[in-house]
């Protein structure tokens, strides 16, 4: 079997054609475009009639430029490269990747439309340098790619899939790349082997990668990336497809309640056992910040400490007695409220003052709007010209979840709370939501997982509670800590679908029509 190996060069760039395990010339692997090669990149996409673009790097990583943005910055703009007009038709932002729809067209000498095409770009944004992404996130990314362009690829209606990473991964025949080129090799290996498994029920990781590297040495260039390929394929085998269409929700929930006559457990139990088995285990070293002597008093429970790689770091300089550490379990209902209980302003430490703006109380839900004022007290910030404009936040409190109850007494109130939070976020800058519970683990998992599921229902018409719970447990394994909470996530999604979905879809449709 011959795997690509033919280098096709433009004036300033090079790409390589590779075949999958079933199809010749299935992929084009290239470097991320630079300022000098972006025109050649689009010439290649047009000439080879690419089926889609898979981008595996950010444009910026801290202060480093990883890849130039080779598409217009907004839908109102248009760019032209080598006579090819590029226009962004649509952009969908998801947790780990973006999906952009580009309209490409050429005009003749008189300015009349000569030819136009539509191509999708799948941009994975959570693959950090010198690391591997989460296996389930990459599988979901690959599923989205295949769901959109899979039938086109299989029918040979379009050309190869363009896969690229960083521009400095050095696509010359003599250069051994950094992990930039390795990412492309990882994706090709996962995609090609999953395609082989679907057709012939087998994998050939070693054989395929060996042939890839005969043409490009930097494709999968370390043991961690090689192991990640196997881990991803293993997860695919163990977990399978856990999503299903919203239209099948009621039927699926009935099936999940039925016990398997052989194993004597139902699907809820089977799924939750699998989640527990695959939940990461963090060591004390992973959570070193929370175990430092000056931070221990901030932990309500020594077993619930966030890993350093995923916790928020406090950057406000308040003196030597303050650290950058905070744990999500800092608040407990046994202590006074952490917000001003009256209308008067309240000061918290030497830096922050909280102003009460308004409040509203509904059945089972209370809300407050506060303004956070930050005082610049450090000489460092003053000399640097740091400004601290006030920030407005809204606090939502669910009151129908008594202590000792594993789930709320009103599912409708929890769903309404989520809707209220979403409406507030639409009015503001869509920053992250801080979710607080008595111990930082119970209750939070239900809110985060169910909210993610509802977003998936609205955007894609799909339900996947299994992967939603797995995702929220990546950084805090204690979330969704029992089977009752896991099953309740399904109940929340069902309630939303039955009582809210149609109304929300109609509102979204009306909003889009007004924008157009």
From TrEMBL:
InterPro entries linked: Prot-tyrosine_phosphatase-like, Protein-Tyr_Phosphatase, PTP_cat, Tyr_Pase_cat, Tyr_Pase_dom
Stored Gene3D superfamilies: Protein tyrosine phosphatase superfamily
Domain of life (superkingdom): Eukaryota
Leader peptide range in chain numbering: none
Domain Tyrosine-protein phosphatase, residue spans: 1-236, 268-496
Domain Tyrosine specific protein phosphatases per the UniProt entry, residue ranges: 139-227, 415-487
PANTHER family: PROTEIN TYROSINE PHOSPHATASE 36E, ISOFORM A (PTHR19134:SF561), RECEPTOR-TYPE TYROSINE-PROTEIN PHOSPHATASE (PTHR19134)
Protein name, UniProt field: Protein tyrosine phosphatase
């Amino acid at each position: 079997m011959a795997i690509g190996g033919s280098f096709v060069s433009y004036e300033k760039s090079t790409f390589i054609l590779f075949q999958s395990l079933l199809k010749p010339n299935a992929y084009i692997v290239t470097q991320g475009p630079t300022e000098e090669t972006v025109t050649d990149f689009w010439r290649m996409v047009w000439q080879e009639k690419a089926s889609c673009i898979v981008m595996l790097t950010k444009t910026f990583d801290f202060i480093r430029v990883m890849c130039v943005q080779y598409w217009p910055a907004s839908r109102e703009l248009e760019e032209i490269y080598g006579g090819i007009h590029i226009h962004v038709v649509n952009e969908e932002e998801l947790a780990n990747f973006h999906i952009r729809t580009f309209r490409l067209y050429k005009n003749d000498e008189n300015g009349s439309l000569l030819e136009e095409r539509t191509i999708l770009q799948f941009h994975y944004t959570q693959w950090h340098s010198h690391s591997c992404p989460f296996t389930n996130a990459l599988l979901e990314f690959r599923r989205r790619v295949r769901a959109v362009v899979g039938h086109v690829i299989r029918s040979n209606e379009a050309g190869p899939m363009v896969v690229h990473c960083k521009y400095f991964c050095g696509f010359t025949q003599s250069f051994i790349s950094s992990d930039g080129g390795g990412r492309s090799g990882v994706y090709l290996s996962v995609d090609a082997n999953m395609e082989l498994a679907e057709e012939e029920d087998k994998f050939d990781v070693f054989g395929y990668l060996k042939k890839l590297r005969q043409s490009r040495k930097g494709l999968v260039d370390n043991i961690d990336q090689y192991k990640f390929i196997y881990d991803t394929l293993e997860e695919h085998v163990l977990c399978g497809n856990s999503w299903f269409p919203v239209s099948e929700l009621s039927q699926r929930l009935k099936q999940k309640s039925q016990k398997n006559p052989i194993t004597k457990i139902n699907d809820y139990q089977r799924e939750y056992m699998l989640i527990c088995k695959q939940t990461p285990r963090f060591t004390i070293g992973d959570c070193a910040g929370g175990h430092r002597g000056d931070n221990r008093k901030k932990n309500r429970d020594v077993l619930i400490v966030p890993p350093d790689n995923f916790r928020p770091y406090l950057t406000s300089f308040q003196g030597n007695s303050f650290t950058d550490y905070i744990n999500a379990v800092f608040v407990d209902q046994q202590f006074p409220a952490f917000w001003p209980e009256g209308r008067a302003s309240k000061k918290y430490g030497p830096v922050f003052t909280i102003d009460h703006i308004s409040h509203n109380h509904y059945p089972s839900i209370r809300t407050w709007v506060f303004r956070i004022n930050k005082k610049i007290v450090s000489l460092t910030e003053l000399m640097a010209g740091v400004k601290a404009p006030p920030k407005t936040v809204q606090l939502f409190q669910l009151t129908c979840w008594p202590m000792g109850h594993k789930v709320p007494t009103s599912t409708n109130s929890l769903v309404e709370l989520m809707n209220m939070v979403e409406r507030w976020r639409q009015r503001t800058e869509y920053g992250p939501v801080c979710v607080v519970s008595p111990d930082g683990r119970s209750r939070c998992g239900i809110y985060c997982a169910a909210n993610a599921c509802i977003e998936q229902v609205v955007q894609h018409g799909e339900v996947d509670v299994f992967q939603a719970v797995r995702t929220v447990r990546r950084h805090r394994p204690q979330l969704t800590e029992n089977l009752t909470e896991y099953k309740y996530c399904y109940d929340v999604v069902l309630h939303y679908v039955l009582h809210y979905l149609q109304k929300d879809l109609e509102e979204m449709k009306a909003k889009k029509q007004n924008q157009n």
